[in-house]
Specification:
Blueprint lengths: L14 H9 L13 E12 L2 E12 L3 E5 L6 H8 L7 E6 L2 E2 L5 H7 L1 E3 L12 H7 L19 H17 L15 H12 L6 E5 L7 H16 L3 E5 L3 H7 L2 E6 L2 E6 L1 H5 L2 H8 L7 H17 L1
Parallel strand pairs: 3-8, 3-9, 6-7, 7-8
Antiparallel strand pairs: 1-2, 1-4, 4-5, 9-10
Helix pairs in contact: 4-6
Length: 308
Amino acid sequence: MPADTSPTSTPTRSVADQGRADLEGLPTEPGVKKKDPIVVASDVRRTFGGLTAVDVEHVEIQRGVITALIGPNGAGKTTFFNLLTGFDQPDSGSWSFNGTSLKGKSAYRVARLGMVRTFQLTKVLSKLTVLENMRLGATSQRGEKFWAGALPFLWKSQEQEITERARELLGRFKLDAKEQDFAGSLSGGQRKLLEMARALMVGPELVMLDEPMAGVNPALKQSLLTHVKSLREEGMSVLFVEHDMDMVRDISDWVIVMAQGKVIAEGPPRSIMTDQRVIDAYLGAHHDTDISELEQVVEAEHGKDHSA
């Protein structure tokens, strides 16, 4: 019997594995070019009166990985989130998602492209049920059109599909028992879960989370961490702002550091924790410190920020 001479197939890497491999060996410097970026921003600047909130020369977000965006209070992290996602417009610069320019695009158009976000302070409609909040997350609903509203045969089947998708996600996030409760009755951590679940209704490629651990009790923190990691394993890219350094070290593949509106450092979590530029940004130049002291300062700032 002749030997099998057919070529041996090479196992296909997952998006997450490929993304992590693409980060290996990259120089740890601000604005480093990525092999397969999902977001690219250049010369993005936003001022408020005489204050420059964001002045990003160049930054790229690698596809398929979890990227943390950290920095002291007032570093411009949330403002940068707002600029990328269409909730605010910069004074100048260019930024793109999957090669498509986002300049001038409103937030809902950005979301339809597959780039969604959550907020530091959760945005749920408290007088609607949990299930109704989920349904609102779906895009391109036929029944939204004025002329179609009176013609149920045009949208009934889609409405059913949306409801099924919403219930599937509520089950995944352990909120299915709450679907008929008003969203306003949920705890802070449950609202975070609802907001994340609702963001997935559009089938996004990039999920952006603004301080997902803020105000979450310890019992729900591990659940949130697990959900964030599962997004990566499902092929989505994640960019999150966070002060919880344990979370940054635990789940992020890459860390970007902002201070005074600029990107000052990039790299893997462990190298960032010992980067002198990062230590100086948090503690001031020429300050001798170690990782634990840096973490204490970050957590103290985080607590001060949320008690204000």
